[in-house]
Amino acid sequence: MSRGVIFSILLVIAMFFWGSSWPSSKVLVTYTSADVVTFWRFFLALLASIPLVVMLKIPLRIDGKAFKYLLAAAVFNCLYSLMFFVGLNYGSAGKGGVLVTTITPVFVYLLTFGLYKIQKGVNKSVKGNEILGVFLGIVAGICLLDLGNLQTLFSKFNVFFVLCALDWAVLTLVCQRIRIHPIAINFYITLFSVVLFSPIFLIQPQMLEIFNFDLRFWCMLLIIAVLSTAIGTSIYYMGIAQVGAEKASSYPLLVPVFALLTSYFILGEIPSVLTLIGGAIAIFATYLINLYKPRVKKTQ
């Protein structure tokens, strides 16, 4: 079996870890508050990342510019995690997993296009497939948000997860400016996130209560901290080097599917028809924006 095939299989497994983090996180917030879960997620992910960095001999040297971007990325990462866990108190994990992972690429495209526009002397042509992709992304968003009225539009679930998608889009653009090894980026963002959340120990009396929780809590915590954040993300970055960035970028399209499947088996959640339709449209929109390459007619 070739290395390419092996990493293709590993990438599917990594996407399964990412998808399963949604229902696992939903379980965790039934035990304790979002800030407690967020800290311990980062802390365990950091511990799990250290052996990976050592075994893979990842260079960790950074300069002042990289430090500033990494610190900014950690701030956005902390905000995302807080909104992520709080948002799970107000809706289904499967729907949240579909909404965030499929709407984020649309936000990334819109933010990137906006940055091109405000930079002097930089012109970016818009392709037909990108216009169609953004339009379908908006349609998908309407389906996923289940917009029946203004009250539904501004529900806590919708607000938190739309903000999560926007936050992750900004985080993605910040990380693109960091010129170090991708696994080192993940390591430093996790490390800085732990540092930023450390003061919680002084103000949150429930920080150590997790050691009294049952095996189900610890299994869910290990899924999101070790399997999803540390191992899953590392596999994805290594997979980029093995199968290529273009091919690897298609694998996250599996995350919404796995989020729905694992939410069904772990939580018993049954997705609505609108969630399935919106998710399918959003996946196709992501394909059009990021992966579809129009054929160029050859001139004779």
UniProtKB/TrEMBL annotation:
SUPFAM superfamilies per the UniProt record, alphabetical: Multidrug resistance efflux transporter EmrE
One GO cellular component term: plasma membrane
Domain EamA residues, every copy: 9-119, 159-290
Cell compartments where the protein resides: Cell membrane
Transmembrane segments: 39-58, 70-90, 96-116, 128-147, 153-171, 183-203, 215-238, 250-267, 273-292
Keywords: Cell membrane, Membrane, Transmembrane, Transmembrane helix
Domain of life: Bacteria
Topology within the bilayer: Multi-pass membrane protein
Pfam families reported in the protein's UniProt record: EamA
Name used for this protein in its record: EamA domain-containing protein
Organism (species): Helicobacter winghamensis
Lineage, opening ranks: Bacteria, Pseudomonadati, Campylobacterota, Epsilonproteobacteria, Campylobacterales
